[in-house]
Every structure is written in C-alpha cells, then in structure tokens.
C-alpha cells in the first residue's frame, strides 16, 4: 500500500459504520459486550420457553401436549442452550464490558478476534434452533450427548456436533483475549493482587476453558467419526466402549460447571462489598479459593458415573475429592457473610440478588454434597433430585448473579438508573417462583421420580403441579426483567459517575454512560 493510501486509511479511521454494519464489524469491547448480553437475553427466552413447555406437559401424569420424542428434544435443547447460549455468553458479555474498564485498559488485547468470537455464536445458535425443523427433529439424547443415542440419531446430531465445535472455538478465542488483556494491559500500579475479584475469577475461568474445550471437541469428533466414518470408539460391537465417552465428556463437563459459576462468584464479590460499604473480607483467600476450586475440578469427574460400575477405591477417590471442593467453596461463602457482617447495608436490587445467591447457591452446594456420597448417589442418580440440585446452582446461582450484575452495572453502561420498584418486583417474583419450581423437585427425586421423562406415576402429581405453577411465575416474571432493561436503555433518571455510594474501582471513575473510548491514556493506580 502506498503512503498516500495509508494516510487515507488513517483518516477514515474515525468514520464508523452505522446500522447493521456497525455491529457486524465492531471491534469495540463495549459494543461486543452488549452483543453478547443481547444474544444471551434472546436465548434465555428461547430456552425458557422450552422449559415452560416441558413443565406444561408435566403438569399432569399421562401425555397431554406432545409426543415423547419432542419432549426429549425440548429437554436436550433447553439444557444445551441454557449452558452454551445463555450463561456462558452472558458472562462473556460482562467480561467484555468490565475487564477493560476495571483494569484501566483501552480495549481488549485482540479486538478483531473479539469480533469473531462473538459472531460465531449466532451461527451456532441458528444451527441448534434450526435443527428442530430438520427431518427427525432436534437432538433428543440429553445435553450430555451420550452414545449410543448420539450415534444413532439423524442429521441434527451432526449439526449439533458442528455447533458445539463452533461454540468451543468462540470460547477459546474469547479466553485467549481475556487472559492476554488481564496479564498485559492492567493500568500501571494495578498489580494482580489488587485487581478486582471479577477479573481474577474470569482469568481462572479462561484457563479452564482453554484446558477443557479441546477435550469436548475431541469427544464430539469421536462421535462424529463413529457416526459417519466407521470408527468404533464408543461402539462395544466394534471393540469400543460407550463408558469411555462418559469419562472424556465429564473430564470436560465438571470443569465446565465451574466455568458456569466462577464468574458468578466474581460478580457477587463486586456487588456485596458495595452495598455493605466494606472492602471484601479475605480478598487473598478468595483468589486462592477460586484457584483451588479450578484445580480440584479436574479430579472429580467420575462422581457423575458412580452407577456405571467402578472399583471401590475409585468410588472413594471421587467421593472424597468432590467433598474437598466444599472447603474452598465454604471459604467463599464465609467471606461473603463476613463482608456483610456489621456493614452498613442497603438492599437495592443488585444486593438482593447477591444475597439470594449466597443463600440459594449454598442449598445447591449442599445437595451436591449429598449427591457426592457414592451410596446415596446410586439411589438419586437420574432422578429429579439431580434436577433440583443443578437448578439451584444454575438458576439461583449463575442466573441470579447475572441479574445482580446487570442491575449493578446497567446504570454505568446506559447512563440511566433502572426503576427500583420494577427491579424489586422482578427480584421477589423470581426468588419465590424459583423456589416453588425447584424445591419440590428434591422430594420428587427422593421419592424416585426419574428425570428426562414426559409421563410419571400418579403419586408424583402434586409436587409436579406445584413445580409447574412456580415455573410459570418464574418465567413470566422475566418479562419484567425485559421491561426494566429496555426502559433503562431508553431513558430514566441520570446516573452519576459513581452510581453506588459504596462502589470502588476504576469503572466508577469514568462518566455514565461510559464513553465509547475509555482509558486511552492509562490511569495510575496507587
Ligand atoms: C425457568 C427456569 C427453568 C425451568 C422451569 C427449568 C426446567 C427444567 C426442566 C423441567 C428440565 C428437565 C428435567 C428432566 O426431565 O431431566 C430441565 C433440564 C435442564 N435445565 Fe432447566 N429450567 C430452568 C432454567 C435453567 C437454567 C437457567 C439453566 C442454566 C444453565 C438450566 C439448565 C438445565 C440443564 C443443563 C438441564 C438438563 C438437560 C438434560 O437433561 O439434558 N435450566 N430444566
Ligand atoms: Cu461434576
């Protein structure tokens, strides 16, 4: 390129494209953060509608609304989309908005790769959702993709494998960006141990993603070659072993459940100190606890496999290693409570969600410990107890932290305050609804009701009816959330720079809304 043309390019630098092209070509971390969050919001309503269809079918025993195979498609797609389309993209959205703002960096380290990492997701999303219209319908073998079902299914299974590859690629690119940004682009003086805890939790999460996404990719590639190219990795008739899939899958998927919760710990660790008006209790122990959880997450995978048959020594190993995770997790819960202890607390919507997180996530943690006991798990495996357990950690854990984070940072992002009345209404309906859906599922599981089943024995009717009513309360109260978000984007009381009286950190030193470009000269942190 000639010098003149180069100069011309430099000149054109400020003419940003508008409309659709702006969003397609954007390399700005704030734009990309918003894209991730909108994508997650849309997918939340998609996967949420599937949950309501499932719960509607389960309102009564017998088959009312749908064919059993379609029920299985809904369950599988609900799980896949909630995990890969809602929780993970929402956390990436927070990372994109907040990591540069918290570190005093002008943007992410690799802005163009950042654009790619996002735009791969809608492609995968369309492939997953579109597969409902393919011959044979969407995948129906459960989000865990176990063979032999996943080897026998139709064309949507191949498409889902491709979609999983694409989403994994997106996560790896996002993680490389986050790690590089955090390690290299912190403002002068902002040492690692001074960094906001949200950045720490995402740094560790990004390493987990880079370590485990290739394992998932390997597992689904073996499914693909078993399906199409005559290999027998998981086919016993050809000398393969279907249980091997479970080992590989859970070696990915147990760290994955921490990928779904560590950034939540980070958000809650930002919100609680703000509204308790005290610094986070035990900052360093929080960092070490997060790292310990991440390391331990690699040695516990077979607690998902107690019923496939394993030597007693193996059962003991996976049982005790799993229980060990309760130690660093307990440290975290202790630190959050100690931060609130004798604080001057106020209860704005982000704080309400954060407190609900601490209480209800802990219920999910405890039911996890119950499931970790090998003899108990043999009874409870594949019952509604498991469904209750993971929804306490995913809904009142991951999802509630996302709500807390949105209410907390939305004024910074949009420049407007949200309506506290609507926020609190959303909070109370969500907490009440969530417990009505999922608490009775513990009893259903203890009584032996299997999961992933469209019909059930008569004695399970009452608790199922209660759960379905709760699901519709929870589901429809999310329309309030949608209203709050859209209203806040459009207008509302002007937000101050600091927004919350007790807020600390670099993001609160820039104006609200945060300008398109921030920290072009790095701030100095003392
Ligand atoms: C309105 C809120 C929700 C309701 C009413 C709901 C309901 C359900 C129901 C009824 C099932 C099927 C259980 C079975 O038959 O095994 C299910 C499965 C599942 N849900 Fe949810 N859910 C909700 C939110 C979420 C969220 C936020 C996540 C977050 C990641 C999530 C993750 C999953 C997963 C992973 C499965 C397992 C899918 C499978 O068995 O393959 N759910 N949910
Ligand atoms: Cu696990």
From TrEMBL:
The protein's role, per its UniProt record: Cytochrome c oxidase is the component of the respiratory chain that catalyzes the reduction of oxygen to water. Subunits 1-3 form the functional core of the enzyme complex. CO I is the catalytic subunit of the enzyme. Electrons originating in cytochrome c are transferred via the copper A center of subunit 2 and heme A of subunit 1 to the bimetallic center formed by heme A3 and copper B.
EC code(s) of this entry: 7.1.1.9
Organism per entry: Thiobacillus sedimenti
Major localisation: membrane
Record's subcellular location: Cell membrane; Membrane
Annotated transmembrane regions: 35-56, 76-95, 116-139, 159-185, 197-224, 244-268, 280-304, 316-338, 350-374, 386-410, 426-446, 466-486
Database matches in Pfam families: COX1 (PF00115)
Keywords associated with the record: Cell membrane, Copper, Electron transport, Heme, Iron, Membrane, Metal-binding, Respiratory chain, Transmembrane, Transmembrane helix, Transport
The Cytochrome oxidase subunit I profile domain, residue ranges: 23-526
Protein name: Cytochrome c oxidase subunit 1
Catalytic activity field: 4 Fe(II)-[cytochrome c] + O2 + 8 H(+)(in) = 4 Fe(III)-[cytochrome c] + 2 H2O + 4 H(+)(out)
Record family assignment: Belongs to the heme-copper respiratory oxidase family.
Classification via InterPro entries: Cyt_c_oxase-like_su1_dom, Cyt_c_oxase-like_su1_sf, Cyt_C_Oxase_1, Cyt_c_oxase_su1_dom, Cyt_c_oxidase_su1_bac
Enzyme class: translocase
Pathway assigned in UniProt: Energy metabolism; oxidative phosphorylation
